[in-house]
Amino acid sequence: MEDCVFCEIINGKMAVAKIYENEHVLAFLDISQVTEGHTLIIPKQHVQDIYSLTPEIAGQIYSAIPEIAKALRKSLRPMGLNLLNNNGMYAGQSVFHYHVHLIPRYDENDGFDLVWNPRQGKNLDKLATKIKEVIE
Q: Would you please indicate which residues are annotated as catalytic (active-site) residues?
């Protein structure tokens, strides 16, 4: 796709620190390195976000994730790992080519902070029914 930095990377127009590649998926170190080993996994086919993701492409991406996660654990020895995926501007998506972040976690001061503001759910049965009604 035109003007997509990840498509440029896939097409070899931009250099990255690749750590994994097969015919469908590319994984490379994120230039921001929120924590050491912060990795992006992208499909080689341009897909904007999760709403455009097909089950086939999802399978290709998510079947590669365990191997990459295990390599990060074995090589860098983090204490944990966050998987993060942002969809749409309001969710923090900045590159509109589907991607999953693998963010190794070393301790509470490692540079990544995920803050939850939990609320008590109300009418969960009604909400579940509303969602289930539109599942195809």
A: 99
